[in-house]
Structures are given as C-alpha cells and as structure tokens.
Amino acid sequence: MAFTLSLSTNPFVNRFAEPEDLVQVLAGEVGIGHIQLTHKFIDPAWPAPLVRRMTDRMAKSCATESLAVTSMMTGPYGRLNHFGHPDPEARAHSVAWFKTLADIAADLGCPAIGTQYAILTFRDYDDPGRRSAIMAAALDCWREVAEHAKARGLRYLFWEPMSVGREVGHTQADTHRLQAEIAAAALPLPLLPMVDIDHGDLSSPDPIDTDPYAWARNFAAVSPIIHIKQSSMNKGGHWPFTAERNRHGRIQPDPLIAAVRAGGGHKNELCLELAFREREPSDRAVVAEMRESVAFWAAHADKGRARMA
C-alpha cells in the first residue's frame, strides 16, 4: 500500500500536554502510527533546557509506541506573519525560531518542517512594490532555514497554500507560479507545497480553485503531504470522517485516491487535519471521532504499526 495515513496533532493542542499522554492516546486509542506534530507540544520559544527535556520525553514515548513523527508544522496558534512580517527584525526572529524547530525535528528523527510561505498584511499585499519586496525577503528567510535544516539532516521543507491572496497560494495558478519561483531559486533543501484539499479562494472565478479533487490531482506529483478533511460545498470546517459527516460530505476515499494517482502521486502522505470546537459535546468527542476517521481511511492507506484500541 503506497500511501501513508497520518494525522495532524492540531486537535490535541491544550487537550493534552504531557508527551506520554499524547503518544498513548494517538497510538493506543486513535490507532495511528504516523503524525504531523504541532509545534505547541514542544515550542521552540521555550527555554533550551525545557525544549531538550520535552524533546527527549517525546522521542522516548514515540519509540515505545512505534509512533513516527513524519513532519512538524506550526499549529492553530501559529498562523502568523513569520517570513512575511514587514519588520526585518521580526523576520529574523522567525528564522531563528524555525531553526530551533528544525533542531527539534532532527532530534525526533523527523524529516521535514513547514508552515505558510509568508502571510502579508493588508498594506503589504495591496502595494505591489511592498508585496514584491516582502516576498523576496521571505525567500531569503526560507533559504537560511533550509541551510540549517540541511545541516541537521532534514530532507525537505514545505509550505502550505492558503485561501486568500495575502496568505499566498490561494489559487492553483498562484501556487504553481510561486512553486516555479522557489524551484528556480535552488534552495539548499527542496521547499515543496503541502496542499490542503479544503483550501482555495472562494471568490475565484475558476472552479478548480474550490475543487478538492482538483487540488489533490494537480499537485499530487509535488506535494509529499496532502491535508485531508471532510468538506462541504462552502468549505465550512475541517470536519472529521464520521458516519454523520460522511453522509453529506464531499470527500470519499476512492475518488480522492484516484485523483492523487491521476496526478502522478504514488507515495503521498494523506494527513488528517481536523478541528473540534471548544464546546460540548465536540470538545470531548476528539479522541473518538479521530479514531473513527482513522478507521474510515485505514483500508486505503497505511496507518502505521500502532495498535487499534
């Protein structure tokens, strides 16, 4: 089975904090063997001794439960300007932060880190001159992070196309254009798109920009990780793959796998990126609905060696 099933730990942020608790729930209760670890479980901004201690605990727990951290990414509280910040000192801070994230990833045996390419302010996006300068500065930031990540043994970096122009990659044409510029820049490590089938500009006149299967098909050959979730026509929410949501959802495994294969994908990681409101009963449904979502996809991708509860 060529495809890998993983999940983003976004829904577990602040619901779990101890590495041992998180890993036991993921491996033992949810039944997954591959994860995209959200930075809030080990924050690069923490004091170095704390980062070291939490990284060691996470590595030990993952080894015990045969759980692989296949990528690391900024989480739900990390969708910030980062490399698109208008202040050079703020960008430099982000570069240092991502270098530490690369260090954490390396120590966990994780091959890749990523985030949004650059998030621009209204002012910077609306002014063509400022936008061009910020985007050039962002590429310099990525280059510096790539140099450090390569030295630490990582294999690639990734950026996430979004849904509005100032967050970059909001249309398929914009994503292709930016990726061509990145490729031409010849960074020390590959910087690849990580498409999300539920993203895309709702105001775009081109229907492919809101077609989840078109995103999967048209970037399958270059997107090592594809974020998946149950989707509605108005792209209303990072839904889990539960029986209730699947009855009216747009996403089904067979046509999605077919779209990825049609686009040249053959060993992509299909990463469940789901969301649960901090309201009952949703708050306490996280583990059960993640387990149901993993079970729904288990016949279509390798979910790893973890035990199903």
Q: Work out the helix count.
A: 10
Could you tell me the CATH topology label.
TIM Barrel
Query: In terms of per-residue confidence, which ranges show pLDDT below 50 for 5 or more consecutive residues?
Result: none
Structural class call reads alpha/beta
> How far from one another are the termini?
22 Å
Biggest β-sheet strands, sense, barrel: 8 strands, parallel
Characterization of the model:
The chain is α/β, with parallel strands linked by helices and 309 residues long. The chain has a single domain, classed as TIM Barrel, CATH 3.20.20. The protein has ten helices and eight strands. The chain starts with a strand and ends in a 12-residue tail after the last helix.
Describe the structure concisely for a colleague:
By secondary structure, this protein is α/β, with parallel strands linked by helices. It is built from ten helices and eight strands.
Question: How would the blueprint of this fold be written?
Answer:
Elements (H helix, E strand, L loop, with lengths): L3 E5 L10 H12 L3 E5 L9 H18 L2 E6 L14 H20 L4 E4 L6 H5 L1 H24 L4 E4 L12 H14 L5 E3 L18 H8 L5 E4 L14 H6 L4 H10 L6 E4 L13 H12 L12
